[in-house]
Amino acid sequence: MSSQDASFSLSAADTQSYILTLLSAIAADGIFSADEIIRIYSLFALLGIQSSARLEMIEDLIRGRQGGTPGERIPEGFVQNEQARTSLAKDLMFLESKATDNHTLNQIRAYLQQLSLTPEQANVIRGFVVVENQILEQLGAGKEWQADAESWKELTSRAAAVGIPLVALNMAGIAGFSAVGITSGLAALGSLSGLAILGLNPMTAGIGALILGGVAVKKIADFALSGDNSEQSQLRAFQQSRLVAKDALAADLLHVRRGRKRELLFFWRGRRRRALVSGMDSAHAALSLR
Which residues lie closer than 8 Å to 7 by C-beta, 6 or more apart? Predict the structure, then answer.
């Protein structure tokens, strides 16, 4: 069985590496704004990342093992497996489309280079990212989403032509490519997002994509108040994740404030820690007001 056909199941370590790769791209500028911290901790909460794993990833970001140098290596297992490689490429390209600083762009492009996509494969995946952003824009504005069946068919046809299996694009769950509304919009967004490889259901992966995109969910929550129980349940889960993120931030701040003696020899690590603490303080304050 080829790597393209094989099913790829992420181990706990692989899942952590996948998430850390995305987080290092978000925080590549080393500034750690409140918005970045909220996105990071909301994603932790949505994925159910526990304290020990959170702190390990946060310390990795401070050390720069993933985020400090654009040349850091993506795990070889991701590169060799088509499903994992395509999923990670989709999420990185999505973050690239939202990037506003050169540090983030350089980090993402260094990662994408390691994935060794052909130009044709990269173009197809970027086509899916364009659709992902269109859904984000509509949902973020509190509008119903109407799928464009012809666009879906064209993209999936192009994917097959350049050797990207549909399983790697997580598209099998969008029956007929013609659903309407917020539930199907979130499900489509989640199917487009590489986060589905982490074992999330499509709607939860869609909420994860909203977090990565920095989209405010209040309009979506207001829009869904008249929706069915499934819609309201999913969005309540998102709102609950914000409360979990706030509590996790408060707990982790106690640890992150404590510097490391060895950081006296690596002043830039101390600087990153201070920037992270400042961002975490601001993020916790912002979440407390919401």
Answer: 83
pLDDT attached to residue 1: 34
Q: Which two tokens stand for residue 263?
A: 């950081």
pLDDT at position 10: 72
Q: How many Å apart are CA 37 and CA 249, to the nearest integer? A: 9
| Residue 240: alpha-carbon gap to chain centroid | 18
Q: Would you state the structure tokens that stand for residue 192, as one six-digit string?
A: 């487009």
- Dist CA 243 CA 19 (whole Å): 20
Residues 6+ apart with CB under 8 A from 165: 4, 5, 82, 83, 159
> Mean of the pLDDT values across residues 53-73?
71
Residues 6+ apart with CB under 8 A from 127: 155, 158
Alpha carbon distance 227, 240 (integer Å):
18
Placement of tokens 């694009």 in the chain: 169
Instruction: Give residue 7's identity as a one-letter amino acid code.
Output: S
Which of the pair, 85 or 223, is modelled with greater confidence?
Answer: 85
Identity of the amino acid at 154: E
